[in-house]
Amino acid sequence: MPQSQRHSQRRSGGFSRLPWRGILDVLALGVWSAMLFRYWFGGKLLLLLHPNYAWLSNSAAIILALLALYRAWQTFRAYTASRKTASLDSASSNRSTQNSNAQNHVTLLPGNVSSAILLSVAIFGLIYTPRAFASQTAAQRGISETLSLTRAQPQRFERVANPEERSIIDWIRLVNVYPEPDAYEGESVAVEGFVIHPDTWPNNYLMVSRFVLTCCAADAYPVGLPVRLTGNVSQADYAVDSWLSVTGQMQTETLDGRRQIAIAPTAIRTIEEPRNPYEY
């Protein structure tokens, strides 16, 4: 056999003897950890989780990093040991290891395949940048002006002394408990939210909305308050999904055939999207 062919077979054999299962495990654990660290320090975690559960994700990032280091050390030790024994009887050693693994584990997928799937999902999560929900998602999920029985109900209700300190969800909870809109006539309002143009509303009305999280983004639901525009201003002057700070007074309006509270604004200001756009 020519010498160049023997060298090629030796290199190919060394490549195939690399502990790919261990390498894939280390990569999968490491990339999952990196993804969670990125969401943690990049400020994107609150777009996916309620702050009360952020510690779970942060703890998982640390634990996965430690597991990746341990698995790397374990793989390196096994690889160096196999290199030492390979010169004695590498073929029988490999068969013995494979038989041992087959006897110790029963899996639906080969180990390399399952690790590769985990690694692929982690890479997608690492390059994907989560974004806050906007009007399109709000329309799909349905905008609520009350809290239904299937959604979070206040366990203890305290009426905020200053009406202008209430957020949108505070107003919705208040109306849920005291539904008569005339009870809030003339109260001061100062809220922030993104713009929605409901199809059934006149052009001189828009909605300022926020998403509410009870656990994670999967259960987020939108709530909103109507804003009645005056003068020559119409909803077209405020782009959908733009963020507004609205101050004014609360009054009673009839929309969609129903009496409800609405904001009569004294000032509307465009603002940047908050770092945390959700309410809880």
Characterization of the model:
The chain has helices at residues 3-16, 20-41, 54-104, 111-127, 135-141, 168-177; strands at residues 188-196, 205-212, 221-228, 243-255, 258-271, 278-279. By secondary structure, it is of the alpha+beta class. Strands 1, 2, 3, 4, 5 and 6 form a 6-stranded mixed β-sheet that branches. A hairpin with a 2-residue loop joins strand 4 (243-255) and strand 5 (258-271). The longest helix is centred in the N-terminal third of the chain and has 51 residues, at 54-104. The termini are far apart. 21% of the residues are buried. The model has no long low-confidence stretch (mean pLDDT 81).
How does the SSE layout of this entry go?
Layout: H1 3-16, H2 20-41, H3 54-104, H4 111-127, H5 135-141, H6 168-177, E1 188-196, E2 205-212, E3 221-228, E4 243-255, E5 258-271, E6 278-279
Parallel strand pairs: 2-6
Antiparallel strand pairs: 1-2, 1-4, 2-3, 4-5
Helix pairs in contact: 2-3, 2-4
